[in-house]
Amino acid sequence: MVLDDQQVCNLCNFDFAEDLLVNYRYTSEVFAEFQQAPPADGEFDCLFMYSGGKDSTYMLDKFVNEYGKRVLAYTFDVPFESVHAAQNISLAQEKIPATFLLDADDDNIKLMMREVFNRPAPKPGRYLDEKLPCVSCRTFFVLRAILNAYERKIPYIALCADPQQILTMESNVREIVRGFYETFGERLTGTLFGERLEDLLFEDDEDLPKIVFPFIAMRHDYDPDHIVAELQAKGLYESSPLETHCTLFPLLNYYSFKNWDCMFYKLNASSHVRSVRRNGDQARNTFSIKFPRALDLAPVEDQLGEVVMAIAAGEGSREEHEKTLIDVFQRMDATEDAARFVAQSFLDMRSVADDLGIRLS
Length: 361
Hints:
Layout: H1 10-13, H2 17-36, E1 46-49, H3 54-65, E2 71-76, H4 83-95, E3 99-103, H5 106-118, H6 132-152, E4 156-158, H7 163-166, H8 173-193, H9 196-201, E5 210-212, H10 224-233, H11 249-260, H12 266-279, H13 297-313, H14 318-331, H15 336-347, H16 349-356
Parallel strand pairs: 1-2, 1-4, 2-3, 4-5
Helix pairs in contact: 3-10, 5-6, 6-8, 11-13, 13-14, 14-15
């Protein structure tokens, strides 16, 4: 985040808006093309990236049961997966007639995450740097999905980012590969993927899969509460969005607080604060996580930051930390069970860090 002479940040000045609009226009065009495309020559019309979260479960159901697409539901078995996300995947396998593929590469994704968390924070800061570990993890398995689609000659890849995430994600396959090389360098990229990514860099455009963002079509009507309610009515979702976060969620917050003194969902929180002040009582959606309208976010962020840094340092009482965390998540509209579940993951943060070789300092 960069402040100008009047102390207004670049987010409010929207000096990155042109890049976002170009990306938005491209993703809209690709989605329209995908909708009109005839059945593919091969076995599948698309590779669908399926995580077990609310968004991907909702859209997988629609792709198969409403749109009639021949779907390869691709799940990368992230070693940091929430147990509740895994349970949702089992429900989908029972109820949705898609072909399911499970992929894994524990050693390499752990190596990459250790590198991200242990390297110095980027300076000067850039847009969404506080989410670098999360973005890096996602990019790793997006690249695995791209390679699967490319080698199977599947023309489209469906990625269920919510409407806010779409604007902050690269949608061109070749640029995703280039960006990974830029972030991690040739040596580590070669360790993680061998020479397979180089084939993508030099392939003809028409032979590369295209990434589709299904939620681009419903960006004005996206409602997490409605999505969860519909899935639960169909027996496809038995948890809450907080409960399907990966087990690195506490470490992601630690990374944000340590380097930028903000919570992991700072972008969503800032959007919520601005909208409440400007729109009064009108409904407002911050997409991937929804904050209660009456929530005073500043003290919540302060409390969360204090307890996260105390746990990281091995300070304070586990019982007191648990009590504070449950209170924070309940104020963010989680049920008591969900708040207790997420609180436990924060309390286990040091053991997760030890397992991955991440330094907490």
